[in-house]
Amino acid sequence: MTSQVQPTPPGLLRRIRDTLVLPPTLSAFEQAYLARMNRIALWFFWGHLPLLTALAWINDTGPLFAAALTLAVLAGPTVAYRSLRSPRAISMVFGFTAMCMGGVLVHVGQGPVQIEMHFYFFSVLAMLALFANPMVILTAAATVSVHHLLLWFAAPKSVFNYDAPLWVVLVHAAFVVLETIAACFIARNFFDNVIGLEKKVEARTAEIAQRNRDMRLVLDNVRQGFLTVDGQCRLSSEHSRIVDTWFGGYEPGETFAQLLGRADAKLGAWFALSWESVTDGFLPLELALDQLPKRARLGERHFAFDYQPIGDASGQLEKLLIVVSDVTSEVAKAESDAQQREILAVFERILNDRAGFLEFYEEAKRLAKASLANPAADWSATKRHIHTLKGNSALFGLEAVARQCHAIEERLAENDMPGVQTELAQLERRWNALSTTIDHLLGQQGQELVTMTGEEYDGILRAVVDGAEHADIARKLVDLKLEPTEQRLGRFAEQARALAQRLEKGDIEVAVDGNGLRLERERFADFWSSFSHVLRNAIDHGIEPPAQREQSGKPPRGRLELRTFEHGGEFVIEVRDDGRGIDWEAVRKKAEEQGLSAQTQEQLREALFCAGVSTAAQVSEISGRGVGLAAVKDSCAHLGGAIDVRSESGRGTVMQFRFPLTAVATKPLVTSSKN
C-alpha cells in the first residue's frame, strides 16, 4: 500500500508567512527605534576589532590576520548603515554580520575553549530578537548554518577544536534551528506588542476619533443640551452645540452655576446654593439632586433640567450629566390649554350667574387697571391689588391670571424690579386678551336687572293692595335695586366648596343666611372683592383635612357659616368656621419680626390684619403673603366699619365685620297688612 503525504494546509502556510514577514509600513516609532538599535549594533561590531585582535595574539592565531578579517567583515555593516535607507534592511545586514563575527571569533580563538566560543552564536542570535524582525533571525541562522557546513568540509578545525564528525555538526544545527524558532517568536511578539504598539494606539486613536466625530455629529444636531460637570461643578469641554446657542460659550474650568448666572443671576445663585447640598453629603444624593432647578425661563424660552449622576464603584458622585430641554412649545401649549379652560370657566359662570360674574369682572378690571397703570406710584397698594386680583381670579376659574399674579408677588418678594416689570407686562397682555374674549361673550349688557324673591314680591303686592303709604312702597321698590346679601354669600359658598376640594379639605358644609338684607352693590364692591381673602384663609389655615379632623374627634366634614344680620344698631357680616383656630403665638412671633407690638390680645388682633403678617409656614398661590387681611381691613375701614375676631384653639374662628346702620342701606322688606 502506498502512503500519501498530506499537503500542508494553505492556512498554516499563510500564518507562518504572516508571522515571519512584517507589514511593509514602518511607523514613526519603529523608524526611530531601529535607527537607534542599528547605531548601537554598529558600535557593538566595531568593538570586536580590538577584542578579536587581542584574542588572536593570545592564541597565536595571527593578530594582523584577525584584524584584517574583522575589518573585512565590518565593511559590510558600515557601508549598509551609511547607504541603505531602510532600517529593516540595515538590521538584516547586521544579522548576517553578527554570524560572520562569530565565525571570526571561533577561527581566531582556537584552543581549549574554542568549542565554548560557539555560545557567541547562540547568545547573539537571541540578542537579534531586539530588532523585532524574524527575518533578521532567519538571515543570521542561515548564515551560521552555511558557515559551519562549508568550514566543516574545508577546514573542520577552524570550527571545532577537534575533527568533529557530521552528527556533531547536525546537533549544533538542530540547536540553532530550535533557538531560531524561539527567537523568531520572541521577535514577532516584541514587534506586535512593543514596536507595533504605536500602530495599535494609532488604530485605537483613529477609532476613538471616529467615534468622537460620530458623537460630535450627534451632539451638534440634537435639540437637547448635554453637559457634564465634575464634583466641583466644573463643566467639561464636550457638550452639544445647542448649549452655545442657548447660553453662550464657556471657558474651561467654568462652573455650570456661572454659565446659568450669565443668563439669569438668580438662577445661577439658586444652582450654586443647591449644589452645596449635593457635595456636602448631608442629604442623600437623590434628594440633594432634587433640590436643583427643574425649570427656568430665560428670556422668551422655557427650559427643563434633568440630572443623571455618574458615580464610581463606591457610589460616590464622580460626574453629573445635565440634560437641558427647550420646553417653550410645551409651556405655550399648556398656557393655551389653560386659557381655553379659562374661557370655558368664564362661559359657565356667565350662564350660571351672569350678575355675579359681571360684578367680579367689573371689580377685576378696576384692580387690573389700578395695578398696571402706574404700579411704581404706590407699591403697597399695587401689592394689595395684585393679591386681591389673584384671589378673586382663582375663585372664578381664571387660573392663568392667578398664576401670573403669583409670579408678580414672587418677584416683588425678591425685590427683583426688572422681573416685576416683565411679569406685569405679561399680565397686561393676558388680561387684555382675556377681556376681549369676555366682552365678546357678554355682548350688549343692556339695562340693569332688578331681582326679588317671591316673598318680597308678595310683600310689595300686599302693601299696594292694603293701601300703604306711597313713601313706604317707594322705599320697598328702591330697596329692590340693592343687592341681596344672601345672593352674594351664596356665590362665596360655591367658591368655598370648590376651594376646599382643591386644597384637599374634603366636601365641606357651607351654611348661608342673609336674613333678607340688602346692600348697595357699588358701595360694597371693594369690600366684597377683598372679602374673598377671609374666605380663603378660613379654608386654607382654618379647616383641617378630613383625616386630621377625625383624629381630633371632629366630624370629617368641615363647616363654614356665612351670615349677615343686624345687631345693636350695626350691620354685621360674619364668617364662622370649626377649624383649628388662630395660632396666636405664631402671630406674635411674626408681628415681632415686623417690629409690631404684640403683648395684649387686642394688639395681636391688630397685628393679624397688618401687611406682612401671616401664620402660613410657607408662601403658596393661595396664601402666605400677609397681604389679604390687610386689604380687608383697609376696605372695611373705608366704609367706617370695624373687625371683631374670636378664636379658640381646636374649635374654630369667628370673624365679624361691623358697619353702622346709618352708613348702609340694609332694611329688609317686611310683609305687613292692614286689617
Describe this structure in words.
This protein has 675 residues and is α+β, with helices and mostly antiparallel strands. The chain has four domains: 10-200, no CATH class; 221-326, PAS domain (Beta-Lactamase); 332-442, Up-down Bundle (Four Helix Bundle (Hemerythrin (Met), subunit A)); 469-663, Histidine kinase-like ATPase, C-terminal domain (Heat Shock Protein 90, 2-Layer Sandwich). It has helices spanning 10-20, 28-46, 48-59, 63-83, 87-108, 119-127, 134-154, 166-195, 197-219, 241-247, 256-263, 265-279, 285-290, 328-352, 354-373, 379-395, 399-413, 417-442, 454-465, 470-479, 485-502, 525-542, 546-551, 584-593, 601-608, 628-638, and strands spanning 224-230, 295-298, 301-311, 317-326, 483-484, 509-513, 518-519, 559-567, 570-577, 642-648, 652-660. The protein has a five-stranded mixed sheet with strand order 6-8-9-11-10, with helices on one face. The protein has a four-stranded antiparallel sheet with strand order 1-4-3-2. The chain is rod-shaped. The termini are far apart. Residues 619-625 and 669-675 have low confidence and may be disordered.
Strand order of the largest sheet: 6-8-9-11-10
Class from secondary-structure proportions: alpha+beta
Q: How many angstroms separate the termini?
A: 154 Å
Rough outline: rod-shaped
Number of extended strands? 11
Radius of gyration: 51 Å
Percentage of β-strand residues: 5-15%
CATH class of the largest domain: Alpha Beta
Percent range of helical residues: 55-70%
Mean pLDDT: 79
**pLDDT below 50 for ≥5 consecutive residues: which ranges?**
619-625, 669-675
Total domain modules: 4
